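ok here's the first one, seq then struct tokens
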Amino acid sequence: MEIERKFTIKKLPENLEQYPSRLIEQGYLNTDPVVRVRRDGNDYYLTYKGKGLLAREEYNLPLNEEAYQHLIQKADGRIITKRRYLLPCDPYTIELDVFLGDLAPLVIAEVEFPDLEAAQSFLPPDWFQDDVTMDPAYHNSTLSRS
């Protein structure tokens, strides 16, 4: 089960380059239900996501590079490329996605939680702007089609 909240941001944190980051490329084979292929650095995955906004099922299956290269060509819509920065937010980690290509300058912050209570009691940092968790327009699967 994946439990996460998503936020737009007011401004990028200072010294963003000091945080660990990686390049992610992903495409969607299907958006209802979500079936995605992703290259995350040198790792490759096929992911199934169930329905839901705040909490939903998620299964990741490892792929090799050859399988990924074959499947990404079958993606519907745009291939999403983003740089993901990992910022500490004790006891959580903010995954700050800076979208590249035609989705730039979109930036979305995501925070994953161990349970619904933790997600609902989370107080976002002051550089976060709007909570867009319940807005499907900010799902990557939707962005791949828009």
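and now the second one, same deal
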Amino acid sequence: MTPPLLDRLPLPRHAPPPAPMDGALLRIDRLSLAYGQVEVVRGVSLSVAPGQVVCVMGRNGAGKTTLMKGIIGALRARSGRILFDGRDLTSRPSYARARAGIGYVPQGRGIFPQLSVLENLLLGLEPRGGRDDGRLEEVFELFPVLRQMAKRTAGVLSGGQQQQLAIGRALMGRPRLLLLDEPTEGIQPNIVEQIEGVIASLKGHVAVLLVEQFLDFALANADYCCVLESGAVTMEGPPASLEAERLREALAV
């Protein structure tokens, strides 16, 4: 019997290379990031194992999005290292990180509004040399609305539909690590549930580093959590190990 689509979707066509000896797919070592002279991320260390979901939480301005930009290469590291599958990517450009197997869904979705839905999705094949090995059909099955609106200009989609498009585009490259920055922000509940289902289907197959302020969503989906305050890690551990009252205080506006 053919397994359900959500079970089949994340599996790569070819076996991935073995993980580093320490078991981490992504390892961030004492990473600091700045805008000019203003240091926003200060000596952050964290790791994500293959197939693990790690959630980064914190108040607005804590450095969460800056951390994601540093990992994908949109912001140069001031100090520290970024290792992916044992390789040092700290000085590598964003396209090299994407080709290494890192997918990125930025805060605000980052779609190309003047292009069609289909054109946006096909751009996601670039890390794989533009080859579609059936991934487009899988993404259409995962997000049926994208098939229905394939020829429409992406800018006319609702916020929830644009978020589905952004995630679908990232999955087109069959990433080994998926970076999701605030995927539930401003999204209607039914699509939040759908995104949660996608994350659940990826778990165990594709590593996910998730930035999320919706506490219940984060705790329900994460294997491990990390709290940033003023750009530094102040709490971390499996969700069940975190003190709920202290956690809510750390995230309170």
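notes on #2: The beta strands are 26-35, 38-48, 53-57, 77-84, 87-88, 102-105, 177-181, 207-211, 224-229, 232-237. The longest strand covers residues 38-48.
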